[in-house]
Amino acid sequence: MASSVPVLIRDLALILCTAGFTTIIFKYLKQPVVLGYILAGFIVGANVQFFPTIKDTVDIKLWADIGVIFLLFALGLDFSFRKLLRVGATALIGAGTVVIGMMSLGYLVGQLMGWSFMNSLFLGGMLSMSSTMIIIKAVDDLGLRNKGFTGVVFGVLVVEDLFAVLLMVLLSTLAVSRTVEGSELAQSVFKLGAFLFFIFMAGIYILPSFFKKVRGMLNDETLLLLSLAFCLGMVIIAVYAGFSFALGAFLMGSVLAETLEAERIEHMVKPLKNLFGAIFFVSVGMMIEPELLVQYFTPILILTIVVVVGQIFFATIGILISGQPLKIAVQSGFSLAQIGEFAFIIAGLGISLKVTDAFLYPIVVAVSVITTFLTPFLMRLSEPFYYYLEKKLPPSVLAFLNRYASIPTTLNQQTLWKQFLKSLLKIVFIYGTLSLIVIFASFTVLEPRIEAYLPGFWGGLLTATITLVVISPFLRAIMAKKNRSEEFKTLWNDRRSNRAPLVSLFLIRILFCVALVSLIIIKCLNYAIGICTGIAIVFVVLLLFSKRLKKQSIRLEKHFLQNYREKGIEMDRKAPVRQQFVQSLLSRELHLSDFEVRQNSPSVGKTLRELSFRQKCGINIVTILRGTYRINIPGGDERLYPFDKIAVVGTDKQLSEFKKYVDNIYEHATVPTLDDKEISLQQFLIEKDSPFIGKSILSSMLKEYYGCMVVGIERGMTSLLNPDLTVVFEEKDVVWIVGEQNKIEKLVKNKI
After folding, report:
1. By Cβ atoms counted within 10 A, which residue in 95, 120, 385, 744 is the most buried?
2. Given CA atoms 569, 570, 575, 580 in this order, what sign does their dihedral have?
3. What sign does the CA torsion over 689, 691, 694, 697 have?
4. Which of 212, 256, 213 is nearest to 233 (CA)?
5. Nearest to residue 82, comparing CAs of 740, 675, 674?
6. pLDDT digits (tens, 9 = 90+) for 299-308
7. 645-650 and 665-668: which strand pairing?
């Protein structure tokens, strides 16, 4: 007699077969496969009478939770804190505006529909996050990677991913406490920030070095096992620390994203993410009840309108506020008008915590399905809507928006004081935060355990000693770093009036360290404040003059920076230009794209003068990357060869024409780089005594003398993009130039 098939295997077979066929259908219809998974879940979830149904929903729920872990882990691998640091103010302001605006709007709509406080609060969280998966898929399907607004959209999505993870933690805290007390919420935010900061710093300090030591033994199998071990280990740590397992998975992914093995790990984890992610989305579809959809048809319709209109409005406003032009803002807003995977995860969180009603989940799923379906159509509609808006807006409003989007920040305005203070604040923040985290951990974890075995004075002394030894390198870095830097010396020698502020800053840092040491001694030894302060001053002075501690502090920082920069240095060789340059381009129209020359391209072997790309398409080639050899601002005699990567600057229209004109050249994604020899973009102002006044671009010999190229001129209310070489410079022109950073600085120093 044949043995029966286990229920779990039967259910998985049913899920995968159904999902496989539905995704084929949706692929044929050129719709996101996520919709196919949700439909498969709807079918197998006892909603279709003639179709087999899932029997053991508990096991499927467990597999779906594993799916969430791998989805967040993969998202973290693609996220990385390096991306967050380089997305710029546009992404931060845009994402912040969307999240705050949509959360407030979602909560208000929930209250107006008579829903409870928690239902409304979680609804706001669900409606505030656009879908990274769906947007990337739609951009690729519609061939919009070359468009200027896509970089802004992807930057906003990077920030939203982080906001979503933080939001899940905060919603969990509120759901458990059932109150919105300011002190408790502030404590939760501080705890979360400290946890994220500590794990990131510790991870960057340890993991790249670990992988470097075992790299020779890492085949694909071993690397996959290690990656999953790190992921699940961080999940356990996050849960024990009082956070969600999703946060742990995302955080470990973002730390591993800073290692050289990130791409290999992402490639190997992708099948697991696809498998378990499919099960998660199927489980989402299983929770849809047709009766509830009919019953809540009106709220579904209202929320769909709220998502589309609200996301477009807040995203457009936020991106406009950040200084982007109206066209970029409108296109970005229309692209972000949907909700997706994070809405499902937040909805599932509310149900698991038993703080939201069951009807909310299928409503949000239905809204997500409708908005996902609308996404490609909204993206196509964005440009016609912008031109319609341009015709309807008053000329004065358009003129104001154009001026606001083009406020120049020239090299002349960059002061040494700003650079010095920025570096100093970064040092104090990083090392001060690390010190506070160690002190907090010492008071809450170390001290109670030591007191249990060694009570009284000696237990307190041991706790204080361990804590001070651990934070000593951090305290010394706070006090001593930047005191012998070039900026400090220049400011000190430049003017006598600079010396008092510099000394004051040094004393403030010493007092901050004295306060931290005093806090530890008072807490652990219960001495009087005066005695503790005296001991702290002596201790801090000893730290400041300790050569051994100086070497240790430098070694720790060097090790961390080496690990942090390792991936960036490796990626530099492969990148035509750095991301900072891309973000600094003329935001109104110009942006940058990368192309690679194929072996059979008709451009192979020809000089740039023969190809005449600027004359025929209006674009500028600013960099050619040939293996590890980089050619910035190439001359007309430079030839193109197979596998050359070229970086070109132009408008959307010019880049589209260039793509059509150059047969057999295809686009690759831009990768950031930190190479000092890379090109940069800056503005400078033509002042009344400038030698450039009255000279044309050609006669000024900028390219010949300084290796710089003029890509734009702002003159009054008009902008000249890719100006003709015969254009003559005038007083008060704001000139955009491309070139190597040191050459631009030389130009500004000598000629402006």
Report:
1. 95
2. negative
3. negative
4. 256
5. 674
6. 999 999 999 9
7. unpaired
